[in-house]
């Protein structure tokens, strides 16, 4: 197998830089349009990057498809991290984006490989890119968008009475317990305000998100307005300027308390939100799962604290 010379490596580096620049420019253009959160960003861009790498970067004559695939994936990762730094994106965005990024860079490599090794006029050579183009249109218009409203419910039984549960909503909140792995990706509130449990009160959750772990900081708050309070029911509406508002628009929550006996309460926590990112088939299950785990964590850590471990179920 012929080894690449220094000139080939220099050309490859320059082409990777050029592809990175083109990707950054394209994403910047999408930022100025209503399609920034559409599938164009999360499907078409990684697919296009992988195709460009396959066709425009040099490869060793006689190299196996496995080696070409490895080189392609390595270069796409370099471009992902480089463009994320240039665009000031944070680690949460990168982690959420990685699985779908890998998927469509893989599909692009397969499409290019089929194009190169089969009859260029065959169905196999063109079907996959056409499917990807179709999928990339989601979210670009109202016609190509799916319903964004989501309602997630978690029900659990805690070993305290209703009065104690409501009292804990008015006490200082500490979120120190272990979280589900998907929640550990997201920074916890830096501070949580304490307010009396009465209609019209507003509890602030202050967030400080260091996109680059220690720099590129986004600050904001999630303001929880207690809009309706009854004996066994609490409704809140939410105003959100935290980093979470980049991914979803949280409308509010509903708490329902059902006394089982003197020492046990069935709590149902419902969260309503709009999904802001496309495609729906990727981001909606991810967000619903995270919200369900967040609701379960809040009940366990705050409302059912110091009681026996709660038992619950999600309705997602």
Would you kindly provide a written description of the structure presented here, covering whatever features stand out?
The protein has helices at residues 6-31, 39-56, 65-86, 91-117, 123-136, 162-170, 280-303, and strands spanning 149-158, 191-192, 202-210, 217-230, 233-240, 248-261, 264-275, 311-315. With 316 residues, it is an alpha+beta fold. The chain has 2 domains: 6-136, no CATH class; 149-315, Alpha-D-Glucose-1,6-Bisphosphate, Chain A, domain 4 (2-Layer Sandwich). Helix 2 (39-56) runs antiparallel to helix 5 and helix 4 packs antiparallel against helix 5 (123-136). The model has no long low-confidence stretch (mean pLDDT 89).
Which secondary structure elements does this structure contain, and how are they paired or packed?
Elements: H1 6-31, H2 39-56, H3 65-86, H4 91-117, H5 123-136, E1 149-158, H6 162-170, E2 191-192, E3 202-210, E4 217-230, E5 233-240, E6 248-261, E7 264-275, H7 280-303, E8 311-315
Antiparallel strand pairs: 1-7, 1-8, 2-3, 3-4, 4-5, 5-6, 6-7
Helix pairs in contact: 1-2, 1-3, 2-3, 2-4, 2-5, 3-4, 4-5
């Amino acid at each position: 197998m012929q080894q690449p010379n220094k000139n080939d490596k220099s050309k490859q580096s320059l082409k990777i830089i050029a592809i990175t620049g083109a990707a950054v420019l394209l994403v910047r253009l999408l930022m100025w349009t209503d399609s920034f959160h559409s599938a164009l960003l999360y499907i078409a861009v990684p697919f296009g990057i992988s195709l460009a790498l396959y066709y425009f970067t040099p490869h060793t004559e006689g190299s196996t498809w496995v080696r070409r695939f490895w080189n392609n994936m390595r270069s796409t990762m370099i471009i992902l991290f480089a463009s994320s730094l240039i665009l000031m994106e944070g680690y949460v965005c990168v982690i959420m984006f990685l699985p779908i990024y890998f998927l469509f860079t893989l599909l692009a490599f397969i499409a290019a490989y089929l194009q190169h090794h089969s009859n260029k006029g065959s169905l196999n050579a063109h079907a996959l890119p056409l499917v990807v183009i179709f999928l990339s249109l989601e979210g670009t218009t109202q016609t190509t968008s799916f319903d964004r409203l989501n309602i997630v419910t978690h029900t659990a039984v805690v070993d305290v009475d209703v009065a104690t549960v409501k009292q804990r909503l008015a006490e200082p909140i500490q979120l120190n317990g272990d979280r589900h792995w998907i929640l550990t990706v997201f920074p916890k509130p830096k501070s949580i305000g304490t307010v009396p449990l009465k209609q019209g009160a507003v509890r602030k959750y202050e967030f400080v998100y260091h996109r680059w772990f220690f720099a590129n900081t986004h600050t904001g708050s999630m303001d929880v307005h207690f809009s309706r309070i009854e004996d066994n029911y609490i409704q809140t509406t939410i105003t959100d300027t935290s980093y979470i508002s980049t991914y979803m628009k949280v409308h509010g929550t509903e708490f329902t308390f059902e006394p089982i006996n003197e020492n046990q309460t069935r709590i149902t926590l419902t969260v309503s939100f709009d999904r802001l990112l496309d495609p729906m088939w990727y981001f909606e299950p991810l967000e619903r799962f995270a919200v369900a785990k967040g609701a379960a964590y809040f009940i366990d850590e705050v409302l059912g604290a110091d009681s026996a471990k709660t038992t619950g179920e999600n309705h997602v």
